[in-house]
Amino acid sequence: MKLNIGCGYNRLEGWLNVDNNPDSAADTLMEAHDLRLESASAEEVKALQLVEHLGFFKAKYFLSECWRVLKPGGTLTLETPDIEKTFSVFLAGDAAAREAALGWVYGPETAGMGHAYCFPKELLAELLAEAGFETRAVTEFLFQPHRPALRFEALKKEGERAALNAALRRRLLDRGLAAFGREEESAGLELAVRRLAGGAGDPGSELEQALVSAPAALEYFTLAEENEPRPSPEAAACARLAEWGLQGRLAAEFLANYGSAEDADRAARSALELGRQLLKAALAGAAAPHGPPPADRAPAVFTREAAAAWVFRLARRREGGICSGGG
């Protein structure tokens, strides 16, 4: 099988053409970052002028999904705007060149066609390597007048770290745990996923990621338990923490110690201290803790930034105000 992901109206014969838009020429409708396909089922993936539409966090899941569905040695071809050269075109160009360059940066205003995140060459190469790909070639070309582009040709490499990264992200997608709604929560979970899938092999450091997301850490340790196979005290502890509503309890502790923006560091330290106490209790097999219940409508991910943004939204709601973009 060969996959043409984000095909739009560019339907390729002999390929499975995939898009999320029912008005496209797709054979099947699917999100690029959440491929409902068997692992190791494709020889080749093309994604032409797609990744810039996904945003940073969905792009990381897209790359891990490409690694998962490709067979060993399968190839991935990406095309995307060359954002750095586009900036140069804008700065040096006349009115027509500047207009074309701006459209290339932001994308069309047609629904679903805007660009969420344009990747510099070095960053995209880094993300490909992190997902388990070897970049074989990078070609610079002109997609349209005043619109420079990049083409990456990459090869799937086998490796435990890449396999764990893909498996963990797949589990988070399947459980509805992948955070894409709010920037600060997406960033917090992404950092935890990178630390869990980073191959450090330190259970203590890995277990600390339960403070960010107990359900995500549970999926990681459950994968390890299935692969060993052996009973995992870390998985059992994470299951207790998730059942206790750890992230909601940390948010409540943060809120109790937060009076102003200057208090955010102190409030986060207090919440994390509570979290480590609960983590120790969970490892010991303790019963559910006493004390205040988890905060209502708390973020699913706990970090200082996510908690501070949540408290800000709470304050705005209580004031009856509207915060543009904050919800």
List keywords for this structure.
327 residues, disordered C terminus, Rossmann fold, alpha/beta
Structural commentary:
It is a single chain. By secondary structure, the protein is of the alpha/beta class. It folds into 2 domains: 2-158, Vaccinia Virus protein VP39 (Rossmann fold, 3-Layer(aba) Sandwich), CATH 3.40.50; 161-318, no CATH class. 47% of the residues lie in helices and 16% in strands. It contains 12 helices and 7 strands. It has helices at residues 56-69, 83-92, 95-106, 121-131, 160-174, 183-196, 203-208, 214-227, 233-243, 246-256, 264-283, 304-319, and strands at 2-5, 16-19, 28-29, 42-48, 70-81, 133-144, 147-156. The chain has a 7-stranded mixed β-sheet. Helix 5 crosses helix 8 (214-227). The longest helix has 20 residues, at 264-283. The chain starts with a strand and ends in an 8-residue tail after the last helix. Mean pLDDT is 93; it is low at 322-327.
What is this structure's SSE topology?
Layout: E1 2-5, E2 16-19, E3 28-29, E4 42-48, H1 56-69, E5 70-81, H2 83-92, H3 95-106, H4 121-131, E6 133-144, E7 147-156, H5 160-174, H6 183-196, H7 203-208, H8 214-227, H9 233-243, H10 246-256, H11 264-283, H12 304-319
Parallel strand pairs: 1-2, 1-4, 2-3, 4-5
Antiparallel strand pairs: 5-7, 6-7
Helix pairs in contact: 1-5, 2-3, 5-8, 8-9, 9-11, 10-11
